[in-house]
Amino acid sequence: MFSKRLLLGMLWMSVVLDVKAQKQDPAITQKVDLLLNRMTLEEKIGQLNQYSGKALTGPATAKSNDLQTEIRNGWVGSVLNVKGTKNTREVQSIAMQSRLKIPLLFSLDVIHGYYTTFPIPLAEAASWDMEAIKLSAHLAAREAAASGIHWTFAPMVDIARDPRWGRIMEGAGEDPYLGSCIAEARVRGFQGKVLGDTDAVMATAKHFAAYGAATAGRDYSGVEMSDHELWQTYLPPFRAAAKAGAATFMNSFNTLNGIPATGNSYLLRNILKGKWHYTGFVVSDWNSIGEMVTWGYANDVKDAALKAITAGCDIDMEGGAYRKNLISLVKEGKVPVALINEAVKRILYQKYQLGLFDDPYKFCDEKRESLVLNDKKSRLAARSVAEKSIVLLKNDGAILPLNTNLKTIAVIGPLAKAKRDMAAAWNVNQDTTAVVSLYDGISLAIRGRQTVLYAKGGSVMHSSQQDIAEAVSIASQADIVVMALGESFDMSGESKSRADIALPGNQEDLFEAVAATGKPVIVTIMGGRPLIFNRIANKAQSILYTWWLGSEAGNAIADVIFGKYNPSGKLPVSFPRSMGQIPIFYSQTNTGRPYNNEPEKLYLSSYIDEQNSPRYAFGYGLSYTTFGYSELKLDKNIIFANDSVTISFSLTNTGRYAGEEVAQLYLRDEVASVVRPLKELKKFIKVQLQPGESRIVHFVLGNDDLSFYDAKLNWIVEPGVFRIMIGSASDDIRASTAFTLKK
Ligand code: NOJ
Question: Ligand 1: does its nearest atom lie under 6 Å from the Cβ of 151?
């Protein structure tokens, strides 16, 4: 028998965090096996083949005829970019003419809404509200599923610490813990109670892996990264998505340490399908199998197909590499049929799970489509989620919320009347004329009680002297000015990396000219990434970071401006002061020469021309009210392995407005066998409080929260001192204490 001490010692070292195998329904696996036995090699490979079907509907063309023939012959397993009940029914009916009548899967990039557009994912992450994020994904799924879609290519769970990377807008920001919570919420939101319900779609955790760490923030570039960094920072949200049951994963375009992700068996076989026991299927990114040739990793497309299927990529998106080469690769004995069977089984399983074999047109109900797409529920939710996504960065003199006695408001700026921009890059199916602009939102909110003046002040990229003069003249006639500045929709997103993330054009000149009128100026900044706007940060009285908020953008911003909603958003990503600070993130480690704001001292880890701190820190965001933190307590100061510690404190609304605070708990493992970050987010909670109201908040930290990857990638907890920090932002710690974990 083991002695108690030995047993404890073993537990100590072997807290292994593998994902449990997802349970499969034996009745479905049996059906899958039976069907597989009836399939020819060609039909099997067909399941691994996905085409973009834009040409499939509409006027007949040579391409559409070819695609139709492929489907009829059973050489296509799924299609992307065909949407709407009419179109999906039409294309599905072609698959029903194939020998085995295996239904097609219809997939689409439903990233932040389908017909109703929700805020971009980075904006929603700023809500730190998991229920709101889940609801947004659920309503997007509900609309898409009503419109014939079975499968969305979302959520993107890539951690991103470089705002030059345009796709930072599609993710949840810089932090692995917040990112994991959001990954789970989004997967659960998209996939609903059970897959097969007609208000749910299959989710895709993408892009596996480390895509967000693209060298120099340039989209599609390679990634060199230590395993340690991969495991501690980039993999956790993927693991959370797998654990939450994400039906599919998508490869990333990048290489990871020299191996393209699509052909990377370490990622796909060892980690995902091995250690994590993942039973869903993996789709390549658009032609990412073929791109392995361009990378210089495969001799030709056939070689790329061999590498991808061997590594564990199940579906070839739009590349045709599997379709053209797998048969000969099998015949030449280079690809065992067992490998093909394994991939096919994963795909068929999901098709059965969706109920498509019972009714291939299950998602093609035109009546349901029209009801769901016209249901006001989605617009109401989009407005509420948008309100929660707004971050109040500055509010000098409590200028916001605006007093309703003001007579004249000037709305100024290139994005004041923008609609298309609010829908951002992934606008898959929306009528963007239905978007509420900021100008419309403000006008609706005051309903004729006040005068709303308007000046465009130029375009996002340029304000001429005349534009500026006109804006100044309009501002001079108003009591207060609301400015709408930022990026246009095509400046962030896929392939929209920027080498300079300053607020574009000369919008800061426009701001300064307007501010020089002496009128109070509220600046709203819209965009898909953290931007740099130091002059505005220094001089504006009030700044709202409003991202791109979707269909209800203008209404949501007006709700915040007029105090109908008290802002509660917190930044999910650090905002740099200057480009040279990138990558900047809060969970840095200490150095041997830490810098503590001592500008005159040299030989410390600092810049000679810039501060170390970000302009706005991770977790930062103001409210119209204030919150006090007090009575921080631990239930014990000493714990032993596998114990937990309960942290409690009192949170009080110390201001005049009802509001919500995101209370954050950060942890530091003071001394460890691998240097640990100065602070790591471990828990958070969003609490609503009336003025004067207090609530005791409890957080429990267990073994897992104290663990980290050691130098050999074991997930372990080590004895020693752990510092607990409670606060309102990563740079606004209000109380701190410590406990010791003993052997
Ligand atoms: C390429 C993008 O990287 C991916 O995120 C998207 O899902 C596919 N294209 C399909 O549109």
Answer: no
DSSP, collapsed to helix, strand or coil, labels residue 1 as: coil
Cα 79 to ligand 1 centroid, rounded to whole Å = 13
Nearest CA to ligand 1 atom 11: 109
Distance, in Å, from the CA atom of 254 to the CA atom of 494, rounded to the nearest integer, reads 13
Instruction: Dump pLDDT digits (tens) for 313-358.
Output: 999 999 999 999 999 999 999 999 999 999 999 999 999 999 999 9
Whether the full predicted model's pTM is greater than 0.90, yes or no, is yes
Q: pLDDT (tens digit, 9 = 90+) per residue, 393-407?
A: 999 999 999 986 788
206 lines ligand 1 (CB under 6 A): yes
Higher local confidence (pLDDT), 128 or 18: 128
Q: At which residue do the structure tokens 């998209």 appear?
A: 190
Straight-line distance from the first to the last Cα atom of the chain, in angstroms, rounded to the nearest whole number: 20
Sequence ranges of the domains in the chain: 27-106+336-374, 627-742
Q: What are phi and psi of 281, to 5 degrees?
A: -120, 165
Q: Which fold has domain 627-742?
A: Immunoglobulin-like (2.60.40)
Cβ of 494 closer than 6 Å to ligand 1, yes or no, is yes
Q: Torsion over CA of 101, 251, 147 and 102, rounded to 10 degrees?
A: 0
Q: What local confidence, expressed as pLDDT, does residue 18 receive?
A: 52
Give me the half-sphere count of Cα atoms (radius 13 Å) on the Cβ side of residue 711. 4
CA of 106 to the centre of ligand 1 (A): 14
Ligand 1 lined by 291 (C-beta under 6 Å): no
Task: Give the burial string for 553-578 (b: 16+ CB within 10 Å, else e).
Answer: bbbbbbbbbbeebbbbbbbbbbbbbb
> In the annotation, is 731 catalytic?
no
Annotated catalytic residue: which of 109, 162, 175, 285? 285
Nearest to 293 by CA among 274, 319, 267, 329: 319
User: Which residues are within 8 A (CB) of 447 and not within 5 positions of it... i.e. 6 or more apart?
Assistant: none
The number of angstroms, rounded, from the C-alpha of 144 to the middle of its chain's C-alpha atoms is: 19
CA–CA dist 106, 71 (Å, integer)? 13
Q: In what order do the strands lie in the sheet with 281-283?
A: 204-208, 248-251, 281-283
Q: How far is CA 167 from CA 133, 286, 388, 426, 507, in A?
A: 19, 16, 21, 11, 23
- CB burial of 400-433 (b: ≥16 within 10 Å; e: otherwise) equals bbbeeeeeebbbbbbbbbbbebbbbbbbbbbeee
Residue 196 binned pLDDT confidence (cut-offs 50, 70, 90): very high
SS3 track for 340-408: HHHHHHHHHHHHHHCCCCCCCCCCCCHHHHHHHHCCHHHHHHHHHHHHHHCEEEEEHHHCCCCCCCCCE
Strands 451-455 and 408-412: parallel
Helix/strand/coil percent split, the chain, to 5: 35, 20, 45
Which of 105, 149, 291, 494 most suits a substitution to test ligand 1, by most atoms within 8 Å of the C-beta? 494
